[in-house]
Write a structure and sequence with these properties.
The protein has five helices and seven strands, in the order αβαββαββαβαβ. It has 213 residues and is of the alpha+beta class. Among the domains are: 67-143, Alpha-Beta Plaits (2-Layer Sandwich); 148-210. Strands 2-3-1-4 form a four-stranded antiparallel sheet. The chain has a three-stranded antiparallel sheet with strand order 5-7-6, covered by helices on one side. Residues 7-33 have a biased composition (Low complexity).
Length: 213
């Protein structure tokens, strides 16, 4: 019988440790950023509201009445004016049985009536007979329209200014003359001339039609 060995059994060599995993290069910052970047959710923009179709023949905005179109000037003879502006306004509106006049102003001895914002002075002028006697010393009524001076050439010097003015206003519809008309040159300069020029001042809504004629 073989003798038993008293020596300790030989130790088995410890298994070698598992090989280390191959190191992977660290990702670049751009890669990390790309990995960490979440994909933005596409949001659908609302469609713009459709514009209403513009009318092809839209009416032009209505033009309001200007201040000049609302003013009526009452010329006076220079006599004392006793009533105040407010008293005149109230008396005139009372005579018209309605509120036509907004304000009354006294300038240079004359009276200017300013109609309400929706009333033209032409409408007030058509009713002048109802209130003109209430303004002491009133002589004439004038619409506050721009005046233009004109030269009229080739007029016969044998005619008087009164005759010439009658001819001009009779045969030129809408021509309204104001102030004193006069010859352009002196009497001596016209002595040996058969024709000359006069200076006239015209007014009214048709005045621009005669400028440049």
């Amino acid at each position: 019988m073989a003798p038993e060995s008293t020596s300790a059994p030989a130790k088995q060599p410890a298994p070698s440790s598992a090989p280390a995993a191959a190191s992977v290069g660290a990702p670049s910052w751009a890669t990390v950023a790309r990995k960490g970047k979440k994909k933005a959710t596409a949001t659908q923009k609302p469609a713009p509201a459709a514009k209403p179709p513009s009318p092809t023949n839209a009416p032009a905005p209505k033009k309001g009445i200007t201040l000049r179109e609302r003013e009526l000037v009452i010329k006076r003879d220079g006599s004392p004016l006793t009533p105040t502006a407010m008293e005149l306004r109230d008396t005139i509106n009372s005579a018209l049985s309605s509120t036509y006049v907004q304000t009354v102003s006294l300038t240079g001895g004359n009276v200017t009536l300013t109609a309400m914002e929706t009333v033209k002075a032409t409408s007030l002028n058509s009713k002048a007979s109802a209130f003109l006697h209430l303004i002491p010393g009133a002589t004439t009524v004038h619409l506050d329209t721009p005046a233009t001076q004109l030269l009229v050439h080739g007029l016969p010097t044998s005619h008087s200014l009164a005759t010439i003015v009658t001819e001009l206003t009779t045969f030129n519809s809408g021509l309204a003359l104001t102030q004193q008309r006069r010859w352009l040159t002196s009497d001596e300069s016209r002595a040996n001339k058969s024709a000359s020029s006069i200076v006239i001042t015209i007014t009214g809504p048709k005045a621009p039609l005669f400028v440049g004629k």
